[in-house]
Structures are given as C-alpha cells and as structure tokens.
Design a protein that fits this description.
The protein has three helices and no strands.
Length: about 70
Amino acid sequence: MDKKYIEYPNKIDRKEYEKNYKKEHYVRFSASVKPELKQRVDDYCKRAGISKTEFIRRAIEMFENNE
C-alpha cells in the first residue's frame, strides 16, 4: 500500500476544544465595585495564593455555612 494514500484520523484542535469546553461548562460573571474593594480582593488573593474564582467560591461557602 502506498503511504501517500493512508488516511490519518483528524487531529483535535486543542484551542477549539478548550474554547468549546469553556463555553459549555462556564459562564462569565462580572461586577462593578469601587477601586478600594477590588484592591482588597486582589491583595487577599495574592496573599492567599488563590484566584478570584476561588475567592468567590470560598466566600459563598462561608455565607452558606453561616446561615
């Protein structure tokens, strides 16, 4: 069999896959806050070594557990 006629399976486009995955599994969340509050959140996240997403997740869990 001649090699030039061998069909290879389609390669997955990683960037396209990740784009579609995020589109199906995540939503964008934004809020307008005063610069001082944003700075406090940024500073806390930096000290704790966490993302803003993790900050929000932890804050929600704290509120839910304190009800």
